[in-house]
Amino acid sequence: MKKDYYEILGISKGATEAEIKKAYRKKAVEFHPDKNPGNKEAEEKFKEAAEAYEILSDADKKARYDQYGHAAFEGGGGYGGGGMNMEDIFSQFGDIFGGGFGGFGGFGGGGGGFRQARVKGANLRIKVKLTLEDIALGVEKKVKVKRKVQAPGVTYTTCSTCNGSGQVTRIQQTILGRMQTAATCNTCGGSGQVISSKPNNADAQGLIVEEETVTIKIPAGVGNDMQLKVSGKGNEAPGKDSVPGDLLVVIEEIEHPTLKREGENIHFDLYISYPEAVLGTSKEIETATGKVRIKVDAGVQSGKILRLKGKGIPSLNGYGSGDMLVHVNVWTPKTLNKEQKQFFENMMEDDNFKPHPSKSEKSFFEKVKEMFS
Question: In which family does this protein belong, per the annotation (predicted)?
Answer without folding.
Answer: Belongs to the DnaJ family.
